[in-house]
Amino acid sequence: MSNRPLAAAGRTVPLLRAGLIAGIVVAAVAYPLAAFTGLGAKATAHAVEQKTSILRTALPAETSYLYAPDGKTILTMFYEEYRQYTKLSDMSPNIQQAIVAAEDNRFYQHHGVDPKGVARAFVANARSSGVSQGASTLTMQYVRMALRDSAKTPKEVQEATQQTSLRKVKEMRMALDIEKELTKEEILERYLNSAYFGHRAYGIYAAAQIFFSKTPATLTPVEAATLAGLVKSPSEYDPITSDQKDATGRRNYVLDRMAQLGYLSPDAAATARSEPIRTRVTTPANDCTSLPSQYQTWGFACDYVKNWWSAQSAFGENRLERMDKLRRGGYRIVLSLDPKIQSAAEKNVGAKDGVGSPFANGIVVAEPGTGRVKAMAVNRTYSLDLGENPPSSNPEAGPKVKANYPNTVAPLLGGGSLPGYQAGSTFKMFPMLAALDAGMPLSTEYNSPHRYQSRVYDGWAPSNASGAMTGRQTMWSGFGKSVNTYFVQLEEQIGADKGVRLAEQLGLRWRTDVDRDHASPAKAKKWGAFTLGVSDATPLELANAYAAIAADGRYCEAMPVMSITNRDGTPATYRTASGIQREVAKPRCRQVVSADAARAATDAARCPTGDTPAKGSCGGWSTADSVRGTVGRPVAGKTGTTDSTRSAWFVGYTPELAAASFIADPDNPFNAVGDGQSQVPVVAVAQTLRDGLKGTAPRQFTPPSDRIVG
């Protein structure tokens, strides 16, 4: 059956220009203020034309979806207004007919403004000495909603919705213009995608989902009439929270109007009136705390997507604009996690077991050559409910402050505002890599005493963790045994600032006042302790920095997504400083050090893991010699511990993956994890690399050139 009333089906009912003029005259009489407050002024006319131009292309806010890596499984949604744009052809004729019957039964006969409706409203309002009846057509209502949805400032929102005479006349003017540009079907489609139905349901897709758990295409006459009845007053006619008396009365009114317009036969309308309203309520997921139970451990990765998004200039000039785009832009976002690697990471840090300890053990896995994040896991539950959390372990926090376990939404793995944790000797990679890139060979040798009196860093005298490290060391043995006094001498020769600047090029950021001060151009040259890892870092940063070394010195920014598409299905893009249009989700990579320097650093980094370097000698022992046997393929990496083992780290990588794991107390950095737990990150990384790469053929590291070996 046609959506047009039987009285209008098959023929055109023209609206004479005289009728339009009469309608506007009636409007001017009804709203005399509007006739004399600048409606004819050039500025107002210009503003109306500007807004009309917006209306021709305006799209309402739409929900953004986060998908699992398969691109099909919905993990969660981001929205302020739950909405998904739906074509008219994907809507049941029942809802199209019901909304016309409920809101504007002369929709197919007028040209945006209905003179008869205006006249009726004027008479009714004059009799009541107030506003007892409106005269808004569907087109006028769409104008109001479109202006609201396209508003960029609170003032524009107010102007679009305030009950004033001037606003009403502007609506009429714009409605007339819109009907010249859009067909009735286009207007109806936009209207049904903009209307508010209650329960945060904006548009018919959301309404069908929330009230009946179905799509708009399958709405019955009873369901369609119920939803159409809500538009007038979503709270008054709400069939979910009320006793349904008012909702049923309103629905029956719509059914009667549908019968009068020929959309339903009298018998069908009578049958529909006798049916109760049977809702089947769905509460749509929203944000990262709403992930399905089987993906609940992915909450930290979801949270990183949000933090990453908020830093992307492609989505706005500031964080507020960017997050508004996420919640209103209708994007389709595919997460970069690899389910197999994520599962391995979760298992090896006990993410699903919960934790009864203040010490967090987390891991991040990144892909060399792309920067894509393949796993993020920590032994915490991603939840806002801190009710059962014990008091914080930080004595300065006070008894009412909750600890970060077992539940938290804090970005413990990186990507947020937290500074991270002191990373210890994992930082020795940066001065070594800087030295190699500057032309120093792997065979560079220093006599490394147990304690070394620096001649550069104002009398600083660091010592080694063990007397067994004393003696002449090269980069291979110095890195494998983590000899502090070797690396202080290496750092003295190249300059501490060179390591600091290289770390920045590899993605590290200084988030505490102390670190920023030491890393400043004025002080970096004297930051001798930098090589010992006194700075805070996150596992996300270190996994990605070491991934660049695995990728022959090519650093790629951390990327938590595989793809981002706009609501029209096209890839989301941004324009580079050089004017090139690029996809937001494409890897962003740059060569930071020479490939030969990175390969040489990897050769030395095979020593800590018990692997065999291609060119040199590890000196007989190493700090994590079990890793090679666990991973079962070529592997490089570095351990790191801080004073009194307040935190412990291991960063390991193969040609395919780089992983960084830590154990520390996020609430209290002075709460030492102790030597007994220093191997926890070593085991977590080794087993995650083993499990995540199971079934794939081992790849070999490319050896460094003889020139850089020395």
UniProtKB/TrEMBL annotation:
GO terms for biological process: cell wall organization; peptidoglycan biosynthetic process; proteolysis; regulation of cell shape. SUPFAM superfamilies: beta-lactamase/transpeptidase-like, Lysozyme-like. Residues 363-667 form the Penicillin-binding protein transpeptidase domain. It catalyses: [GlcNAc-(1->4)-Mur2Ac(oyl-L-Ala-gamma-D-Glu-L-Lys-D-Ala-D-Ala)](n)-di-trans,octa-cis-undecaprenyl diphosphate + beta-D-GlcNAc-(1->4)-Mur2Ac(oyl-L-Ala-gamma-D-Glu-L-Lys-D-Ala-D-Ala)-di-trans,octa-cis-undecaprenyl diphosphate = [GlcNAc-(1->4)-Mur2Ac(oyl-L-Ala-gamma-D-Glu-L-Lys-D-Ala-D-Ala)](n+1)-di-trans,octa-cis-undecaprenyl diphosphate + di-trans,octa-cis-undecaprenyl diphosphate + H(+); Preferential cleavage: (Ac)2-L-Lys-D-Ala-|-D-Ala. Also transpeptidation of peptidyl-alanyl moieties that are N-acyl substituents of D-alanine. It comes from the Bacteria. Keywords: Carboxypeptidase, Cell shape, Cell wall biogenesis/degradation, Glycosyltransferase, Hydrolase, Multifunctional enzyme, Peptidoglycan synthesis, Protease, Transferase. GO terms for cellular component: outer membrane-bounded periplasmic space. The keyword Transferase applies. Residues 73-258 form the Glycosyl transferase family domain. GO terms for molecular function: penicillin binding; peptidoglycan glycosyltransferase activity; serine-type D-Ala-D-Ala carboxypeptidase activity. In the N-terminal section; belongs to the glycosyltransferase 51 family. PANTHER family: BINDING PROTEIN TRANSPEPTIDASE, PUTATIVE-RELATED, PEPTIDOGLYCAN GLYCOSYLTRANSFERASE. This is Membrane peptidoglycan carboxypeptidase. The lineage of its organism: Bacteria, Bacillati, Actinomycetota, Actinomycetes, Micromonosporales.
